[in-house]
Amino acid sequence: MPDGELLTEGIHMTVSRFQYHAPETLEEAVKLLADKGEGAHLLAGGTDLLMKIRHGLLKPKTVIGLKRIKGLDTITFGPKTGLTIGATALLGQVAAHRDIQRRYPAIAHAARETANIQIRNMGTVVGNLCNAAPSADNAPVLMAMGAEAVLLSVGGERRLPLTEFFKGPGLTAMLPSEILIRINVPPPPPRSGASYQHISARGKVDISAVGVGVFILLKGGQCQDIRIVMGAVAPIPMRALKAERMIRGKTLNRALLKEVGLHASKEAKPISDMRATADYRRKMVAVLTRRAVREAAERAHKQ
Amino acid sequence: MEQFRIVGTDVPRTHARAKATGSALYTDDIKLPGMLHGSLLRSPLPHARIANIDVRRAAALPGVKCVITGADIPKIKYGNWRLFPGTQDEYALAVDKVRFIGEEVAAVAAVDRDTAKEALELIRVAYEELPAVFDIRHAIRKDAPVIHESSPGNISIDRKIQYGDIRRGFAESDYIRKDTFTVHAVSHAYLEPCATLAHCDSDGRITLWTSTQTPYIVQCLLASTLGMRENDIRVVKPHVGGGFGGKMEMRPWEFCAAFMAKKTGRPVKFTLTREEELATGRRRHPMKITSRIGFKKDGTLMAKDLRIHLDGGAYNAMGPTATFLCGNFGAMLYRYPNYRFLGEHVYTNKPPASAMRGFGAPQSLFAAESQMNLAAEDLGMDPIELRIKNAQVTGDEIPDVATISSCGFIESLKEVARISNWKRKRKALGPGRGIGIGCYSFISGGVFNWFNTQYPFSAAEIRAFSDGTVHLLTMASDIGQGSDTVLKQILAEELGLRMEDIRITSADTAMTPQADLGSWGSRVTLMAGNAVINAAKQIKEQLFGAVSARYNLNVIYDLECRDGRVHPKGRPDRGMSFGEAVAMVQRANRGDPLVARGSYTPRGKGLVTPAFSFGAQVAEVAVDRETGQVQVQKMWTAHDCGTVINPQSVEGQLEGSIHMGLGYALSEQFVMEKGRTLNTTFLDYKIPNALDMPPGESVCIETYEVEGPMGAKEAGEGLVSPTAPAIAEAVYHATGFRCRDLPITPEKVLKGIEKRARS
């Protein structure tokens, strides 16, 4: 196991000195994590972690790299078992995966819209979730599609619906001893569809000011079930439960789409920051929810 | 028109390979034995009196070699306007008072960066906070806190321009309108953050390698602030990763590096972080611009009354020049028979604004061009027709300023209308789609001598060798714009040599001839280019003399240097190779090498510039009416930069300008709260990315500028101005919302659309 002290001069930033471990099995990894305690941090792509270290926001004692663990980047799909995304599967791999593009186009889209090419070739979908930014592009649609996180510790595995995963900006329900090893997404039922819509201040490559993920299940022209998840408008990606209730069981039409958007907009709890004002975010929730429900429904019709 | 062989061709950039492969040395790449690393302590308050600074703990930290504050340095103020010492308002480190968040208060030199940073945290500064002002409106109120004792009303500079009879001009107008526009600060965002490395030799002489646009200015101001002689300081410019106006002054780290190198006897390096650059760096002036213009019914311009307040931040920096220039640019493009301008430069407790690509033009022309578009609509005229009706032409005189010796403006307007299919698109674009126009004129270097140099504005030395090579030495600074390449091209053309026959040494104040005012105001091609030609002509005279003697030529013969040979025109057989000719001259002078010095200082060219460039740009946009997002679909440009010396370079300048103009128009801004900059990384300071760049089409209008080298004039700076007004007009065309307050954010567009829907 190639241990060693990583001395980084940093790009003019004070970088703390930390122990770096690169275990080759999950067993080793969870054991290390248990041994090292709370000062230990996990590194998958490093695109968030290293920035935090460089900016002095995080001073880890130990960093455990996960990239050497074989099979942890696996993406699998089965019509019955659904989709699994391993902890070190890159954003770029998820965006380009043929099964995901075909069966989960909204998940592929969210991964493709995250950051830029360089970051997508380094960063991971799971890392994007664990970083727990309210604006995380991959959270809303995965939550809407009923994904669950598989958490591993020395004590064994537990499964947690993603809707219960986020606890606050940068905070998750993971214990310090746990590694999120995999995301499971159920197989999309017939006549269902999903969509992810987002907006930011710059054109094509940017952090999202608002994002909305929608999963819908149709019965005839009616909405049988729906989940709407809004990103960057609350401390965590949040469900628009009232909007969901309002639309369930109803026949989709233009007026209803408009109304569902307005409902979601009322539920959002945005703040004003340098990326957008609360007022603008609220308006965009209405627009993006409408667009996401429409696209999800169109996809459901085609199935 | 002259026929050229190398000028006008896509000669590859001299440094392209070194930069592309990473072997080019920038200041931060240079490492010297025993080198210390410097770091700056910056003010956390926007306005405060410094009661006490205690550096004892920092100085005692192992690895720290030097700590200095304002108390340790000579109390000599500096600033680029040396001709007017009253405008020089900065100390390298704050003395008594801080005036913006980020102002340099103390400096540390230590064995490594981490130690230097750690030492900063150990310095205790006791501040007494003072009330602060953050915008023009509050700064000029009678009861506003005073930022500099020398400017009790917080107005540090005013500039006036007036000609004609403004009152009569308006009295004779049929249509008058008055508009107010505001524009914001943006960052130069050069890719290379500022860096500097100072070395002091055993005789006490300083060598400073630094990322600068103006080695000569840094040399002189370093000398005056250190109390040294100019010639005891050598400033060398390594490769520079962009400047855009942000690196044309002496800066605190340059002073501190030199001062601490002298004090410690060890080399000292400073390299700023991106966060420091964005939080505290120079920026483009925000302005409040009120303009009143009068027309005849038929669209003839009668008068313009322009009033501009510049938000200068805490110090003058290049603000005085910007104050004059925004008034100068307000009088360009069109014939204003009666014109009045008053500009006032206002101090506020923010990081100082300074020169930035366009130097007053992007702000002033956003207002002027938006107002032309507004007037065209009211007058029921097409915006391009209204412009053509009033456009400046070759030979036009701007009273007290200059005579325009070449002008391709009308041709630019007609050409951009043609390539953009203006008439059709203006009538029939789909919903949410729009097209708009903006124009520019710019200077090719300044005539003004606020730096009070006693040397020529540009100079060149050429050393010719018998092996057929020449060495060009010039203080002109290539900061990425390509001047080394362009100057070599001009010299190769003049001496009939190839690019590979020319070695260039540039921007080293101890090695290259005095002087060059630096790379700003689009002055280098014209001024340094003329200096090169001037020196080359002297070399040629010597060579022609040798060839004439050798072949016993009639004195009336014309000779030329061409294809590596020197011979009578049209008679290559009666001549010799360039190297043989050099050898003959050298023998005739009993071994003295063949060397010539040339220079250029603009004379008899008025008060502003030797030559003006012109151009017109059309933008097409698509606006999402639900989100307010603006997508620029395409840009068309037609411009007149005189003779094009390097087409690829001009194209690069055009693309870079559009990119910068796009950010200025749509997405770039400093988000500030009580003098603190919140967006200090490129994640939240939103420069457009490659994917945001629209496709473009461009045409160079051919003119020949008699004052320019081989007919050339400015191409790098003016083009940044038309983009924002063109996009603003296109957004108006698409939505009915007119933005008078840059940037055009989605939120503003959406509010504008909603307001229009309600009314």
Concise overview:
The complex is a heterodimer of chains A (303) and B (759). Chain A is an alpha+beta fold. Chain A has eleven helices and 15 strands.
Describe what you observe in this structure:
- The complex is a heterodimer of chains A (303) and B (759).
- With 303 residues, chain A is an alpha+beta fold.
- Helices cover 33% and strands 26% of the residues of chain A.
- Chain A is built from eleven helices and 15 strands.
- In chain A, the strands form four sheets. Chain A has a five-stranded antiparallel beta sheet with strand order 5-6-11-7-8. A four-stranded mixed beta sheet of chain A has the order 1-2-4-3, with helices on one face. Chain A has a four-stranded antiparallel beta sheet with strand order 12-13-14-15.
- In chain A, α10 crosses α11 (278-302).
- Chain A is globular.
- In chain A, 50% of the residues are buried.
- The model of chain A is unreliable at 1-13 (pLDDT under 50).
- Chain B is α+β, with helices and mostly antiparallel strands.
- Helix content of chain B is 29%, strand content 24%.
- Chain B contains 19 helices and 30 strands.
- Chain B has a seven-stranded mixed beta sheet, with helices on both faces. In chain B, strands 7-15-14-13-8 form a five-stranded mixed beta sheet.
- Chain B is globular, with a radius of gyration of 27 Å.
- The mean pLDDT of chain B is 97.
- The chains are: A alpha+beta (303), B alpha+beta (759).
- The A-B interface holds A 9-15, 116, 199, 201-207, 274-277, 279-280, 283-284, 287 and B 113-114, 117-118, 271-273, 626-627, 629, 631, 667, 671, 678-679, 683-684, 686, 688-689, 691-692, 745-747, 750.
